[in-house]
Design goal:
The longest helix is centred in the first third of the chain and has 30 residues, at 51-80. A hairpin with a 2-residue loop joins strand 1 and strand 2 (223-224). 74% of the residues lie in helices and 1% in strands. It is built from 10 helices and 2 strands, in the order H-H-H-H-H-H-H-H-E-E-H-H. The model has no long low-confidence stretch (mean pLDDT 80). Helix 1 runs parallel beside helix 9, helix 3 (51-80) runs antiparallel to helix 8 (184-210) and helix 4 (86-107) crosses helix 6 (147-164). The two termini are 21 Å apart. It has helices at residues 8-28, 33-46, 51-80, 86-107, 112-132, 147-164, 169-179, 184-210, 225-245, 251-269, and strands at 219-220, 223-224. It is mostly helical. A two-stranded antiparallel ribbon has the order 1-2.
Length: 275
């Protein structure tokens, strides 16, 4: 039933996924969960895994992979950034971890189809925002970054991260830029600090929720160790590479390509295209 998990094609697929996710994480300041969750889910579905189990494994494993991947990119950003990204990243991140844990608990109670549709719609909204947003310059802050706002936005973004198996960077970055006056590169750098916190909270939640469930071989709760180790083997070095080139290239072209990929995946999740 799960023979694809042990096939060379499955390993190659996970390796390619790790490369793409790692590059996106370091370059764009995102965890890459919006790619890891649906693509892992598609692969597990084709392997004959029950949709509810497969989707929750994709969610939990995605969050686990995001932790070392984002930390790898965060190390480079912290060295190269001209601002102190540790303080805002940690302020949002501590509360993000709490929200991530709660979101993960809620996710395992929902039918996989509900989560598929929700993620599909969110992917389209994010892609539209990428296509529309052209001004990445630093803006005048509308809010002052403090403990209270860190708690409010951190818990909210963390909850979304745990619920949808993402790091939360795609939600945090627009907030940092539009409300707190961060430039694009500052938002990217801060996001890489924030993401590991939310991912840790969500991962713990998925592990605990799946401990007494019959999931997949070589799994701890809803975290599959085969997927985890193969993905991070490629995503960690690519995240470091992506973080380095983030300071050298124009991100707009890559963001457009990324948005196009998101739309294709969202159409699959919504059932619009039968790939």
């Amino acid at each position: 039933m799960f023979k694809i998990i042990f096939s060379i094609f499955y390993y190659i697929f996970l390796g390619i996924l790790g490369i793409i996710v790692g590059l996106a994480s370091g370059l764009l300041g995102i965890g890459g969960g919006f790619l890891m969750v649906p693509l892992q889910y598609f692969a597990l579905s084709y392997a004959g895994v029950n949709p509810d189990i497969g989707f929750k494994v994709a969610l939990g494993t995605s969050l686990a992979c995001i932790i070392p991947t984002a930390l790898s990119g965060a190390y480079i950003h912290n060295k190269k950034s001209n601002i102190n990204i540790l303080k805002p990243g940690i302020v949002f991140g501590i509360f993000g971890a709490i929200g991530g844990f709660i979101g993960g608990k809620v996710a395992v109670l929902l039918p996989s189809r509900v989560l598929e549709l929700a993620i599909g719609i969110i992917l389209i909204l994010i892609a539209i925002n990428v296509f529309i947003e052209r001004d990445n310059s630093k803006k005048e802050p509308k809010l002052k970054l403090n403990f209270t706002y860190g708690a409010i936005f951190g818990i909210f973004i963390g909850f979304c991260a745990g619920l949808f198996g993402i790091g939360g960077g795609v939600i945090l970055m627009p907030i940092l830029m539009s409300l707190f006056g961060f430039s694009l590169i500052e938002a990217i750098a801060t996001s890489t600090i924030f993401i590991p916190f939310t991912s840790i909270g969500g991962t713990i939640s998925y592990i605990i929720s799946g401990l007494n469930m019959k999931v997949l071989p070589y799994s701890i709760g809803y975290v599959n160790l085969i997927n985890f180790f193969i993905i991070i083997l490629f995503s960690i070095p690519m995240a470091r590479f992506g973080a380095k080139i983030a300071y050298k290239i124009d991100e707009k072209k890559l963001k457009i390509i990324y948005a196009a990929v998101l739309i294709i995946i969202s159409f699959k999740l919504l059932g619009i295209i039968p790939i």
